[in-house]
Known about the structure:
By secondary structure, this protein is an alpha/beta fold. About 35% of the residues lie in helices and about 25% in strands. Strand 3 (about 65-70), helix 3 (about 75-90) and strand 4 (about 95-100) form a beta-alpha-beta unit.
Amino acid sequence: MMKHEFELLAPAGSFEILKAVIAAGADAVYVGGSQFGARAYANNFTEEELLEAIDYVHLRGKKLFLTVNTLFKNNEINDGLYDYLLPYCKRGLDAVIVQDFGVIDYIKKYFPNLPIHTSTQMTITGVEGAKLLKNLGVERVVLARELSITEMKQIREEADVELEAFIHGALCYSFSGQCLFSSMLGGRSGNRGRCAQPCRLPYAVLDEKKKEYKPESYVLSLKDLCGIEYLQQLREAGVYSLKIEGRMKQASYAAGVVSFYRKYIDLEKQVTKEDMQHLYELGNRCGFTTEYFVKHNDKSMITFDKPSYEKSNEALHQEIERKYVGQKSQIPVTATLLIYKGQALEFYVNSQDYHAYVSLGEVQEAKNKPLTVEDVRERMNKTGESSFYFEQLEIQMDDDVFVPNGILNQLRRDALAKLEEEMLADFVREESECKEAIHKTCALKENNEYANDTRENVICSCETREQFETILGKGDFVTTIYVDAQMYDRNALVEELEQDIIRVHELGKEVYLKLPVIFRSHTSKYYKEIKSRINNSDLDGVLVRNYEELQFAKEEFPEKKIIIDHSLYTYNNYAKEAFAQYEIHRDTVPLELNQKEIRRRNNRNSEMVIYGHYPLMTTAGCVHKNTAACDKKSGITYLKDRYHVLFPVKNYCKDCYNVVYNSVPVLLFGEKNRLQEYGIQNFRLDFTIESGKDVENILNLYHEGKGRAIEYTNGHYKRGVE
């Protein structure tokens, strides 16, 4: 592969930090505006600051990307997104960073010339997901932070799309975009930029019998990433952009980290121990890790003893501040000034390949003391807070001339303003370029057309053989069964599945295969080996749970129905319409929407989870492995928090990921009639950690209203998220 230059992408939580990281060597900067960013509590940019920042980076040959990487509610797109983006698009914003599938489609429609980078919140872990986004017109895919360099290389070679990878900073324990922990515990959603970081709290670990075997420690807290020693491998893998995390960090941290990465990107040599120590002193969380670059997971990544972010060596921070923070960063200009009696002053200014010319006033003959070249030079060099300074200023003038200082000042200001306008002209977009058609809102739905529809599709999703058998024996009213791929022996999945399909069909029910929550390269390889046999079976369809599987299913299972799970978020009607182009059979109502938002949502062909332990985290790390040992046996471990609440953690060893589940299940059986008024006829009971007896009890509660009372929650149905 041909050698390529990296883009070093830096964070900025303020204009001061933006200037500092540009001075330190960043090629591009990502920032949050006043809305829709995944750092809602950061000191984000005002509109005026952001417009100024766009000009600032462009004058210096750099780029600026804006985060619009939250999930959007219907009213937020309808009432605010277009007007929010329009001034930045017109000014020349280089790209937007997006999580919401509907927002991608929206921006392509109304801002067709505005490049889109997907957020790491989209959880892209494989070739198929990258291909899907590329086909949508996405310019850059930001990869999940859990990927190895080998996986990155495969994606670059097979998907042929520009890739961005995290290189330095904080790591989330959960796959980004697949965490509801903060959301469920306190209503602060990571998908909405308000994460309260429950992963940084201590938990004790209990075994399957709920016996504590590891005292309280920080088992979900990851060390910070420091990938400076992997620059060459990332270059060889074809990664283009290297992202430094830290929009909420101080200027000395951001500029300092950028300066060291700039140094070694340019030098292309081994990092010295001294510079590694300096990076450590700028800030770390119990040290650094690079394990995701080479391993699937490892206990060495966990902080265990404490979660705190620490910095040291105050002298180093002060040195970086003196060097990069608050310093002028002016652009060199060469200029020629002509001052001849009886003629207008003429001023020619040049910077890079841009030129400007201004003529002004009329040069007078000196009546008293004539101007000298030194006088003129001193006056013209007072460029103040402008973006320029005169690196070379040639002055040609008569000996006995006079020009008022005000005229010289005006000449300088006009010339530099004109030069700046010339330099920025290539970036400015006309409003006609920012919208392909008249902007229209996506109508909110009252779903009244379904109010009298009494159809009811009862779906039971199961993950164990015991759950499956109970559903078959006790769920006469169940119309559809989702069987999880984890139920089957990898060496005999198709054979065992075909037997279950026959049994389910004999009972007059539909059967769908639940694909894994995470679909990385090793999982993709396995399903490619059996794809034709699955497609040729009598399986009714598949439940897909990530973008990789959506692309895979469309390509490899053309005869099967596709249902997208709640992890493929349809928060808004734009997202629902965007997914419709894949001819999906049904979507799933997102777990974070409240009653009012569900009512206003287009619920046609949607299903809703009305029973189940919500997944709080999906993780590459394994609690069981990190605190006991890796025995490659699927099972359940428990996390106990400071309030003695137990959170089940289930190992999905066949595809090597964990899911942390909520302590109590959501149960919304009493809302079924109301949900039918909202247009929902498909109700799902999600069984994950339940025993066969638990399943039987829940089926009885649903169908007959009789059974053993259980502790439950309404989830987000009443409160929603901010």
